Prior knowledge:
elongated; 9 strands; Immunoglobulin-like; nine-stranded mixed β-sheet; 177 residues
Amino acid sequence: MSARIVASVVIAAGILIGTSACGFGAPQATLIQYDPSDGVSGDVGDVAIRNAMLLSADGETATLLVTAVNVGDTAESLTVQYDANGKKVTELVTVRANSSVTIGAKNEPNVTLENIDTAPGDLFPVFFQYGEETGVQLLLPVLTGEQPEYQGLLPAGAPSATPTAIPSAPPTEAPAH
């Protein structure tokens, strides 16, 4: 009788160990940090750079679209720097204390990058920094602005993406019963 109990306990322990450790060696997806959006992110001191991207129809002029979140108690003058025809171009955007600003959105500050010579689909380096904080260079994806959420945000004078009408089949009458 005791051999039967011992065998049952051993079998139960084997089943328990075998089924509870099935994910032991597998990476946990919730621990992997990634940007669940079209843009990329980075941090500069108290300012978080979120969902940064460029919108361009021609690859020469682009709108910077990025949300800067300042968790600090003082307003910061965020430096945005990029290369244009071999020269560094610097733009400044103020981010108020304990707030955020979406640069490039409607009714928000705008930064237009000119003479960048990059094609939609490429990655373009942009440097973000403020004060004495160590800056961060991010490789921003260059998008065409054809996605509905980005329409109307292309640089002024750039051709905007025009939606294409998709023909639909004429409605058919349902058979009478």
